[in-house]
Each structure stands twice: as C-alpha cells, then as structure tokens.
Automatic annotation (TrEMBL):
TM ranges: 12-29, 41-68
Subcellular location per the Swiss-Prot or TrEMBL entry: Membrane
Superkingdom of this protein's organism: Bacteria
Pfam families to which the protein is assigned, alphabetical: DUF4118
Protein name: Sensor protein KdpD transmembrane domain-containing protein
Keywords of this entry: ATP-binding, Kinase, Membrane, Nucleotide-binding, Phosphoprotein, Transferase, Transmembrane, Transmembrane helix, Two-component regulatory system
Domain Sensor protein KdpD transmembrane: 13-111
Native organism taxonomy: Bacteria, Bacillati, Actinomycetota, Actinomycetes, Kitasatosporales
Entry keyword annotation includes Glycoprotein: no
Membrane topology: Multi-pass membrane protein
Length: 250
C-alpha cells in the first residue's frame, strides 16, 4: 500500500502548518530580528519535524519554511518576491540547509531504530554470528537463519531458494520496508502481503539467494524486527559468499 504510517502523515501535515504558524508569530518582530535569526528558528522547526517524521516530511517542511519566510518576513511583505539581495541569499540557504538537515535527521531516526533493538533481537544477531563462525557449512547458517526468521517475523514457514530470481513477489527491502510490485506496502497498518515475501541474502554485494517468507495472517512485525531480519539474511549471505555459492546480484 502507498499509505504512510500515521506518524508520518501527521508529520507531513505539521510540515505544512508549523512553518506558517512560526511565520505568523514572527511577523510582529520582523523589524527587530535579522533575517538570519528568523531563518534559524525555521531550521530548528524543520529538524524537529524531520526527526519525528520522514524524509518527505522534512523536505516539505524545508520548502514550506522557505516559502513562508519569503511571504511574511522579507520585504515586500505578503508577496513571494524579495527586494534585498541578503534576503534572497537567506531564503535560498534556509531551503538548502533545511533540506540537508532534514535528510540527516530522518537518517538518524532510522539508525536509532537499530540502536534501540531489544535484548532478544540483539541475541539473535549475536547467536547467528557465532553460528556463522562455527558452522560446518554455509547451509547450516541458512537453516539457522530460517528458524530465526520464523520466530522473529511470526511466519508460518520459511524456505531458501538458491540461484536466479524468478517472478516478482513482494519484497522485504534493506531498509525494512516492504514493496509489492511498484508500491510500498504498509505492514504496520495492513500486516504482511497475503502471498510469500522475498528477502534477499546479499554477501559482499553479491546475490546469494533469497528467503521466501510465508507470513501468518495477523502478524505485524515492527520495523525494528524487519531490520533485524535483513541483518540475519545478510549474515547468511556472507556465509554463502565465503563458501563461493553466490552470483552477481540482479
């Protein structure tokens, strides 16, 4: 599904409204505050929205901030034109800095998901690393990861396919999202897609095979769990690559 999670939809709404509200609050002070000072206030708002939303929310908030800064806070007021060169520079920098910082904030949010992984999920990663180091074969690592994925993602079953890719099943991506065809599927709201889902095992940039996940009907694994699943699959991929089983990724 293409729907954003509720949190991200709220953040996009805030990205449109909050810069407008900030501009309204600053209007009485536009004669006493410098353009740079007012622009910094907008940047703080952009960072806050991006950190609690998505890249889309951060980008929208940066563009909204630049637009309302221009409209309300630079002469001629209440017009999308700017008469002073320094205000032009400030507006452009506000948009560029806002866009850049929002991307960093959104990335930090995703990284935080991995950092706060609970003890049970950290144990899965650690145990799989130990298995990969001690297992007599790469296939033993694959079997171990299959069992871990069944428990972690609440699957009915999981199998591993070697060789070339066939068909276009839904896919669990490297960033933990799920795509079905060309669309993003919202696992948080709708659960897994009804058919088998592909999770590719990549080792050293080479496609090694894929885990085919058969989901339980009511399972809604968190983004955190899905990211751990990707990590486990890549550990299996690394073991297969070391064993020389892989082919270039397609």
């Amino acid at each position: 599904m293409t729907d954003f999670p509720l949190r991200d939809r709220i953040a996009v709404g805030a990205a449109v409204v909050v810069p407008l509200l900030i501009a309204g609050v600053l209007v009485p002070f536009r004669g006493s505050l410098s353009s740079t000072s007012m622009a910094l206030i907008f940047v703080v708002a952009v960072v806050a929205i991006a950190a609690n939303g998505s890249r889309v929310a951060g980008a929208v908030s940066a563009l909204s901030a630049a637009a309302w800064f221009d409209f309300f806070l630079t002469p001629p007021y209440e017009s999308f034109s700017i008469s002073r060169a320094e205000d032009v520079s400030t507006a452009i920098l506000l948009m560029l800095v806002g866009l850049a910082v929002s991307q960093l904030a959104a990335r930090a949010r995703r990284l935080q998901v991995v950092v706060v992984t609970d003890a049970a999920q950290l144990r899965r990663i650690h145990e799989t690393t130990e298995v990969a180091q001690a297992a007599p074969s790469a296939e033993a690592v694959v079997d171990h990861v299959k069992q871990e994925l069944i428990e972690l993602l609440e699957l009915r079953a999981c199998r591993f396919e070697y060789g070339t890719l066939l068909g276009h099943p839904p896919r669990l991506e490297q960033d933990g999202s799920v795509t079905a065809g060309r669309r993003r599927w919202n696992v948080d709201e709708h659960g897994w897609p009804p058919e088998e889902i592909e999770l590719r095992a990549i080792g050293n940039g080479r496609y090694q095979g894929r885990f085919m996940l058969r989901p339980s009907p009511d399972a809604r694994p968190s983004l955190q769990a899905r990211l751990v699943a990707v990590t486990l699959a890549d550990q299996a991929g690394a073991a297969l690559d070391t064993a020389g089983r892989g082919t270039p990724e397609r």
